[in-house]
């Protein structure tokens, strides 16, 4: 049964930040300096971990305004901010045009279309000349999973609702395509940084029951299937992982990609 927004919010806070989001935010921390920004907007700030970290580093000079995806993650972020006496302003408001010296957006779970909308929104709220950055996986990510998923779907009789794995692969943009997208939406002085992140699980069961995979990745990839068919695919995927890898752990990789630039 799919998780509720409240359950997903708690999973995000307890597991997803450390297992997933941190891989991207470490890239941000390595390549972005906010010391000259008077204010920052953080879009898709989740339960607030990274926004709070940025406040610790830059909050004396930079006012941070963080927009959360839904009311459930917002409440967790607000509670954290209050506990830490943080200056971060968490909300779900729509920011004004040309309002921020810097904008950072988390598109790590976004579809290609959602990512384009998020980049466009980031550019809208940045002032002319302001810094804009966004992060997400790029092409080459999840290849180890898709290879096995392709085999499972081919072996199962799923009918016309079967996911098209080739489409899942090609829908993930290349780093060059992300740069082209940013340019088409009005960013200039664009740079991109890519790091390969490896995720490791003891066996097939550990893989399919991890919150990242069970509640955030597989539901998107298998959304065309009914619950029973999804269960069949997931169980077959776990068995195939174990038969392929034997006593070895299962690993998959993600191209964590950060695109930076300025609003032209």
Describe the structure.
The structure is a single chain. With 264 residues, the chain is α/β, with parallel strands linked by helices. The chain has a single domain (5-263), classed as Vaccinia Virus protein VP39 (Rossmann fold), CATH 3.40.50.150. The chain is built from ten helices and seven strands. The chain has helices at residues 5-31, 49-58, 71-83, 112-125, 143-155, 165-170, 175-184, 204-209, 211-221, 227-245, and strands at residues 39-43, 63-67, 89-91, 100-106, 126-138, 187-201, 250-263. A seven-stranded mixed β-sheet has the order 3-2-1-4-5-7-6, sandwiched between helices. α4 links the parallel β4 and β5 (126-138). The protein is globular, with a radius of gyration of 19 Å. The chain starts with a helix and ends with a strand. The relative contact order is 0.15. The model has no long low-confidence stretch (mean pLDDT 95).
What topology emerges from the helices and strands here?
Layout: H1 5-31, E1 39-43, H2 49-58, E2 63-67, H3 71-83, E3 89-91, E4 100-106, H4 112-125, E5 126-138, H5 143-155, H6 165-170, H7 175-184, E6 187-201, H8 204-209, H9 211-221, H10 227-245, E7 250-263
Parallel strand pairs: 1-2, 1-4, 2-3, 4-5
Antiparallel strand pairs: 5-7, 6-7
What labels describe this entry?
7 strands, 264 residues, 7-stranded mixed sheet, alpha/beta, Rossmann fold
**Coarse structural class:** alpha/beta
Radius of gyration: 19 Å
Strand order of the largest sheet: 3-2-1-4-5-7-6
- CATH hierarchy, class: Alpha Beta
**CATH T-level topology:** Rossmann fold
**Care to count the β-strands?**
7
List segments where confidence is low: pLDDT < 50 over at least 5 consecutive residues: none
CATH architecture: 3-Layer(aba) Sandwich
Number of domains: 1
Q: What string, H for helix and E for strand, traces the elements in order?
A: HEHEHEEHEHHHEHHHE
Counted by DSSP, the helix tally is 10
The helical percent reads 40-55%
- What separation lies between the terminal Cα atoms? 46 Å
